[in-house]
Input
Amino acid sequence: MLILEAGAQVGGAAITREFAPGFKVSAGAHLLHLMPADLLRTLKLESHGLEWAGQRLPTTALSAGAPALSLSHGASAEGLSAVDAAAYGAYLERMRRFAAAIAPVFSKIPPRLGTTAWSDRLSLLRMAWQIRKLGRSDMRELLRIGGMNVYDLLEENFESAALKGALGFDAVLGANFGPRSPGTVLTLLYRLAAESAAGNSGLSQPKGGMGALCDALAKAAGAAGAVIRTGSPVASIVVEADRACGVVLESGERIGARQVISNADPKTTFLKLLGASHLDAGFVRRVNHIRCRGLAAKVHLALNRLPPFVAVSEAALRGRLLSASSLEHLEHAYNHSKYGEYSASPAMEITVPSINDATLAPPGQHVLSVIVQYAPYALKAGWASARQSFLETSLDALEALAPGLRSCLVAAEVLTPADMEQEFRGSGGHWHHGDLAFDQILMVRPVPGAAQYRTPVEGLFLCGAGCHPGGGVMGIAGRNAAQQVLRGEGAS
Amino acid sequence: MTQSVESHFTQPLLKTPFHERARALSQMDSFIPWSGYTTVDVFTTVEQEYFAIRNAATVYDLTPMVKYRVAGPDALAFLNRLVTRDVGKLKPDRVAYCVWCNDLGQLIDDGTIFRLGESEYRICTAQRQLDWLLDSRLGFDVEVSEITEQVAALALQGPTSCAVLKDAGLAGVERLKVFEIGRFTLDSRAITVSRTGFTGDLGYELWMEPKDAEANWDALMAAGRSRGIRAIGSQALNIARIEAGFLSPNVDFVSAEHTIRIGTERSPLELGLGWLVDFNKGHFTGRRALLQEQRRGARRQLVGLDIAGNKPAHNALLYSHDNGKRQIGNVSSAIWSPTCKRNIALAMVDAPYFAIGSTVWAEIYLNRELVWERRMSQAQVVERPFFATERRRATPPGQF
Output
């Protein structure tokens, strides 16, 4: 097993890097919540050096000029009206039941559609049975809300704008959707189901940032006999007699292999590394139509002191702060992206990772890691000229929540989707290698014909975020893919 | 304020550059739409026109054939990925009959590929394909554009067709081999000639600029007067094409891009076009599916039938026995062949009845002055084409 990594360190976007002298931050996702506990145990990551800077971190919704709303204490939230408080508990319980019914599909290789194979039929039946097992009333409710938009769902349930904004945020985070977009209840359920599949262990922060998790993974792989070569970008996949039999590196070096397993996104794998000439035209058309234009940017700030967030407790500051004051705020932010503009008043997920992890900043100083949404990949004005104004807009939005923030600013970095595409080589700079939406999940992810980790070319497999069950630092796609590869080994 | 009045929708069919000439010769006023153009179905009588194909020379307006220009560095790679045949073997100034399939190895369409230059090709096909061609272009450095309206085309078919062209002044046209392309002048107008056709007979297809269309028509008609030249419509041509065993889209197969019902699409192996599929040339769209189908063995196949009696078996259902209990296929094209003097048909037949020499039974309905009768006629699976003549291939062709 040889692992070829294009970058200087393994991990893709899940790395920790220095963006200003002495200040380090996770380049992409900054919190871990989707990686199954049993996978962490199986890979013995803790014995390979993984430590936790924080676990079961809280989520707090911020709105300028309003009290913060804490969402992390079981089935209740502080600061809600009596009506909302009652509705919130019931809502959470119900959504958790739905999520638990969906969760089992995550760790399974999805069935193929349109086959007569019993294994595929059985797999579909199992999925249906999970839903049926919810009971008549829950099943009806799940089927009722499954295709709805999250705006309508939350309007049905709650009166507090801040609560609805915060809950709606998770339905559109990292997606090409606003809360009124069809299918956003599904994206929310999908996220909850992923958390359920991971054991509902809450938000964690690896010590040393997300890169530390990948370092531990690399050590585990090394211990299992894998050889890792960094700085070795693959130029193409070699096909002989209609079978993938190796790769050629950008350096020109050719490496033979019985199987080639690509963690690159499907568009890159099929259209750039493999080439359309090895694929059928209809398949190439489907791959070309995968929706993977990133909409989330990262803003990293180096601060000379703790950021002055108003009315946020110290405990809350250690966790995840959301800025989506209402569903309308989210929807208006999304509207801009439809026309190739970034949001004038963006929604944000904010962390101050240096509070839990002093290794990330010089003593007494801090880093702020912010996911800013929406920042469309194909910005009409072009990112080269808009980068500075985008940073200013983001700083304005942060300043409203933490007056005086600008005065503690030492350095700043913006990673737009275009930057992410450039640096991490993912088409469109999309975190998940493709939107998680009705037509791009389960047995149609990334496209029919490649949704079981196999590809039309014998010997070539996919194992990345573009596959079921998708992106986020999760590890399940990789595990499922490994099982599929081993199945083939057994057969041959 | 003036109001713009768009009236194109009141006359939706286009007229070919030969339209005025065709209309002048049309005695029956029988026009039919074809690929967005109005074209002649019958000029005088089908019999007169058909016998001109087999005994003299005929002119058929081919302009509505959809034509695509394919050019660029990857033109060959693009075409080889598109069609099942090895286009790499096609030399400049040669033509090849090809088919192309979808991912499942089911036929999208058939057509001819003309190699007009080192890396310039033309695809001629009966139905519009631009969407499929553009999708197939992804990943290839190639230009694909539709040029149907920029090229006027005539089919000149029949035993005296070569003599007509020589009389018209196309010196050396007799040296053209079957599927070869030549460039000539007709009264100082440039004209491209390919020795191709849809009749299974000696014949040529002439490609020209639309502005030269009427002058060329007149020149050919003048040159062919003493050789029995005659304009023909689609009905007469259809008889000739069935005799030659050629397939007609939407008659003998429906494009897999257009089928709605499951199982109505057809693969080239099923259509008896396996000889066009080259599994050794590298990847092409549908290759993996066709390999699987080949391993599995054909479930049905298009065959030629020789049917007892003289009543054409139009749309007849086919049975394994004359008791009509077990249906094993159906007829897609049927005629009484005036030249072969046989009752022939093209039919899709299930395994194992498609083997040459098999006997099947055709259920034929006869209209006897509005009184319908049903007849079970015995039919043999026979070799195609039904009509094959040496004059089609002879180079130089005989002077008829």
